[in-house]
Design goal:
Strand order of the largest sheet: 3-2-6-9-10-5-4
GO molecular function: FMN binding; riboflavin reductase (NADPH) activity
Distance between the termini: 43 Å
CATH architecture: Roll
Order of helices and strands: HEEEEEHEHEEEEEE
CATH class: Mainly Beta
InterPro entries: Flavin_Rdtase-like_dom, NADH-dep_flavin_reductase, Split_barrel_FMN-bd
Protein name: Flavin reductase
CATH topology: Pnp Oxidase, Chain A
Domain Flavin reductase like: 10-150
Helix content: 10-25%
Keywords: Oxidoreductase
CATH superfamily: Electron Transport, Fmn-binding Protein, Chain A
Largest sheet: 7 strands, antiparallel
Number of helices: 3
Length: 156
């Protein structure tokens, strides 16, 4: 099978959209990622998958921690910015919690220490032990078949 067929099939799985952030010496680093999942309740663990060519790979290895910002449907521009789709520089007003930069008004904010790292193909899987979390009621930003999506709100 070719790479394009694989990517197309994997794109058929609807996901939320996250921005992964970390900090080194007070400098914030971030990237958009949809490869995120919960792993364990006891201990509380989550997983992010970072490509070997992503600058964020070395940043998480160096800092030993990361934050997962699950985006709301109103934060599409944050996803595009941290994915490199918006080129102009922006001054992002990060909130600092537990010495980590997080995006304000995200559906959920999850701050983790790296628990384990596993190389898998052309990615590294970082399992993070959750040290802080908060969530709020808001509609999430979705990604499906290469496009951003929103919930179609059904009548209750």
């Amino acid at each position: 099978m070719d790479d394009q067929a694989f990517r197309k099939a994997m794109g058929r799985f609807a996901t939320g959209v996250t921005v992964i952030t970390t900090s080194i010496d007070g400098v914030t680093h971030g990237m958009t990622a949809s490869a995120f999942m919960s792993v364990s309740l006891n201990p509380k663990l989550v997983l992010v998958s970072i490509g070997d060519k992503a600058r964020m790979l070395g940043k998480i290895k160096e800092s030993g921690k990361f934050a997962v910002n699950i985006l709301t449907e109103d934060q599409k521009d944050m996803s595009m910015y941290f994915a490199g789709q918006i080129k102009e520089e922006r001054d992002i007003d990060f909130e600092w919690i537990e010495d980590m930069p997080v995006l304000r008004s995200s559906v959920a904010t999850i701050i983790c220490d790296v628990y384990q790292a596993h190389e898998a193909g052309d990615h590294t899987l970082f399992i993070g032990e959750v040290k802080y979390l908060r969530s709020m009621d808001a509609e999430p930003l979705l990604f499906y078949s290469g496009k951003y999506r929103k919930f179609d709100k059904a009548e209750a």
